[in-house]
Amino acid sequence: MRYGHFDDDQREYVIGQPDTPLPWINYLGTDAYFGIVSNTGGGYSFYRDARLRRLTRYRYNNAPLDVGGRYVYVRDDATGDYWSPSWQPTPERELDDYECRHGLSYTRIASARGGIRAETLYFAPLGETLEVWRVRVTNDRDSAAELSLFSSIEFCLWDAQDDATNYQRNFSTGQVEVVDGVIYHKTEYRERRDHFAYFACSEPLAGFDTQREAFLGAYRGWDRPAAVERGAASDSIAHGWQPIGSHHVRLTLAPGETREVNFLLGYAENPRDDKFDPPGSQTLNKTRVRPVIERWLRPETVEKGYADLRAYWDALLGGLRVRTPDQDTDRMVNVWNAYQCLVTFNMSRSASGYESGIGRGMGFRDSNQDLLGFVHMVPERARERILDIAATQKPTGGAYHQYQPLTKRGNNDIGEGFNDDPLWLILGVAAYLKETGDLALLDVPVPFDNEPGSEVPLYEHLRRSLRYTLERLGPHGLPLIGRADWNDCLNLNCFSDTPGEPFQTTENASGGVAESVFIAGQFVLAAKELAGIARLLERDGEEVFYRAAAEKMAGSIAEHGWDGAWFRRAYDFYGNVIGSGENDEGQIFIEPQGMCILGGVGIEDGLAQRALDSVAERLATPHGIVLQQPAYSSYRIELGEISSYPPGYKENAGIFCHTNPWIMIAEAIVGNGDRAFDYYRRLNPSAREEISEVHRCEPYVYAQMIAGKDAPTHGEAKNSWLSGTAAWNFVAITQWILGVRPDFDGLRIDPVLPADWPGFEVTRSFRGATYEITVRRAEGATSRVTEVLVDGVPVPGNLVPAAAPGTTVRVEAVIG
Ligand code: BGC
Ligand code: IFM
Q: Which residues does the UniProt record annotate as the domain Glycosyl hydrolase 94 supersandwich (predicted)?
């Protein structure tokens, strides 16, 4: 069952009924001012940091799930009937029709009731720290309509953590000012009034409210605000309690008439040395923000701001366009998957329907992987991000697992010791270098742990990343896992000395001898990438060393990491094997099958093929590939958190979508296009649109997890949007299945297609030039590309050398 459809021309997902199985959200903002917005107007906004600079209030895990938002109410002043055009928060007031269009960084919700149509466009203009709500109200009746319009938001410009845990404080700190119809929410003393939020309206006001209880009325909710019910605001001024912003506008519309009313919600800083408001001053810098407000309340500015936003996305997405025989592939690659990759760049794991904006900062491993999906769109920002991440690395090569974006300091609850972390930096940097050819990045001085004076060239950070693993090998010559590897929940050094005693969680967790075959595979991959980088730098000795290190590690995998039909997962604290036929549960895990093959282990000797057959036999389901089998049926102290999930969920045999593209890539590496593409389609959200009642999350973005075959809700997705799933699926389809893959020396054309595809076309920018690529399969051919012509001239192998910036190159590749 579908709840909407894709409008491919407009690049919008059109939701046709408001009661989707879960709130289906979208993001506003492209740079520093952001918000989430659901299909029923729910969500909140923030400037840079969803915890420390949150403008509006949102309560997670609410009932219903999604209340609190950017709500508008329409009131028929002749009858007293009122409703919200976004359906929430007045779901009892039935709409005659409804449509929500989620587009790229904007959302438009339109509906009608009783002959009055209202459409709200929400977006945050480029380069501003504000958002616009453009409301258009149309009278479709054949008589004049006397209407009222009420806006509403709930302010929250203080620490969102406090808002949930120490709200007694905020009951006394909230203050507002209303000047010339603009509602200013001032900030608390702790912030020294160095910033504020404002909420403005383009029309003369009939009234306003800024105190929640005055607007809603005592013991009432957002579904029936007293001010809306009686058709009059009370001009309330909040002193503490719950400051809100609500404007009341009266409109008289002739039959057929449409009126536009614009609302602005914005954030402004009061620089401390401001000439109008000296430091510590209690007055707001309204003087500075007033011209911005006036400009953005004008319809022509709004029109242009919206057009500019659309042009911005045209430019970003224009750099990689595919035309394949599969519509779901085209739509995800050309629009939605690319969009999700940029959202993960902006949000990391901060704010979504599942991430509170409070708990998690920037993940070291997460951000390096996100980069793989957006480096081609915003290479300069990827460069900044790499330097930002690398500067949090420790001199040992180790890394904070997570760090706060504003302070750049590690998140101490989590600490370090996830031993896969450092290697992701090499993979992220390699991707950037392959895309851009910008070797100068390697010379940039980067500190350790942001300590001034500790700067070394970025290249040295990469060397230390590799050394970090080499200095931490276990009894089988495999890398020590530390607190966990990619799989956060595989806590193999969590143990209890005394049977029956609770297991020790963290303190000694990284000190044990448990080893990871996954990190071993990742090491082989990273060492080869670093060897490639050393070659470019003509550091021949190092190149040889890294290649030898990769080979040695591959040897340890062959000796201790192969289980007969698949790669093992790990050795635990006691030296017992995990992910082996010897185990009763957790016999085969997906991650080492993917990562060892990505590292090139087992290709020549057929082990890779054997491992992939085991994945197909034991892990694949119609909804994707589960993480391991059999699922753990009870808690096991020696394995840690993985066994704390019920079977089929999350890391305990859920379809952890992040890992599936590794298998797609592995299948492509061994040349199996049918299987690679089949796995790709099982996860592709657009291809799953038809089963939205099962999948339940948004059909336009990937989710972190789909319940596995052991779960009663097999096929149900959770945790959409902020997941490494976005980047890896993008890489799998574009670089390995379609095979258009940036490499250190040029653009590789190495497609591995499903047997029934005659070919496809790609337009791609690469290092400033444009490549018009056509891939054609010769009749009956099943293997790899046999011939590549660049502007009609054959090139050796499948590597297209980088062309001069500004030029357009025609590439024809034949699968022979
Ligand atoms: C995983 C969770 C896990 C948590 C704590 C997250 O990254 O997705 O499944 O519970 O880490 O380790
Ligand atoms: O690898 C992790 C990631 O860093 C955060 N989400 C869960 C993944 C698997 O545990």
A: 11-271
